[in-house]
Amino acid sequence: MSLFLIGDSITLTLLLLLILIFSYYVYDLRTNNIFRRIGMPGPAPIPLLGEMFNVIRTGMYKNDMALIKKYGKIVGIYEGAVPIILVTDLDILRNVLIKDSHVFINRRTPEGGVGPFEHGLTTLKDEQWKNARSIVSPTFSTAKLKAMDSLMNDVSDMFNERLLQYADKQEIFDIKTINGQYTLDNIASCLFGIETNSLKNENIILINHLRKFFIFTLTRIFLLIIFLTPRLGAYLGKKDCYNDRVMRWCEGKEEGEIVVGGNGQGNQTNQLMRPLGLSFDDEGNLYVADDCNHRIQKFEIIL
């Protein structure tokens, strides 16, 4: 009797394996056969990863240059299961960016954004993006851009001083790190009005948290899943997209501190459901855009 059971289990395993192989074959034909059908040149995609394996291995710039050199100015590739057309032909780019720009208004973003990210400027599409653009465009007027000039000059002066210090000491330094600090200081001063001074102090708490962001962890794997398989990523992400708290990080502290919410989702005056934005008034009161409750909440907090 046991021999029959063993035989049945082996047969079932082989049957499941054959079904899995057949399913993958059908999946591969449906998703990775688009460019072959239309005769567009490009590399054979790696199962599940597409061209992302080579991007991670050699870097996006080097990989794109290698593809262009081998296949020409128009290349069909896959990012995971998503078909992507890599275009370097100037005439086509001119049509996409200028002549036919009204057709290509959407950015290349994962479908089904997760949580607050689905309302971000880089993920909005079609009419939603047009409405947001009409609101944001005055921020980038000529006068306001000129007002940022002095802020950027101040950061550039610190950047030059840092380079001169290395030159005087004849030290070897990492130019990528210095350029990153230069970029961070410009963004912080122009967008948020904050003097981070990361060019003078590399140990500020913001720098430390940014470094943690680029450490490869399970969270990074989750973000990679969202990028490679947008629908699956959206499904997984929506399970935890309703943040119900506002936190702050203080200098010298490793863990964040909850200042608002964190006591469950609900519509009570001390609860939040999916906060999307916040601001302060002159008296230090915190205003939180509580998306799912369709309201703006005011909180008195100790800064």
From TrEMBL:
Keyword list, A-Z: Heme, Iron, Membrane, Metal-binding, Monooxygenase, Oxidoreductase, Repeat, Transmembrane, Transmembrane helix
InterPro entries in the cross-refs: 6-blade_b-propeller_TolB-like, Cyt_P450, Cyt_P450_E_grp-II, Cyt_P450_sf, Cytochrome_P450_3A, NHL_repeat
GO molecular function: heme binding; iron ion binding; oxidoreductase activity, acting on paired donors, with incorporation or reduction of molecular oxygen; steroid hydroxylase activity
This protein's record includes keyword Transmembrane helix: yes
NHL repeats: 271-302
Highest rank taxon of the organism: Eukaryota
PROSITE patterns from the UniProt entry: NHL
Cofactor dependence: heme
Transmembrane domains' residue ranges: 6-27, 213-236
Pfam families assigned to the protein according to its UniProt record, in alphabetical order: NHL (PF01436), p450 (PF00067)
Family affiliation: Belongs to the cytochrome P450 family.
Name used for this protein in its record: Uncharacterized protein
Organism listed in the record: Adineta steineri
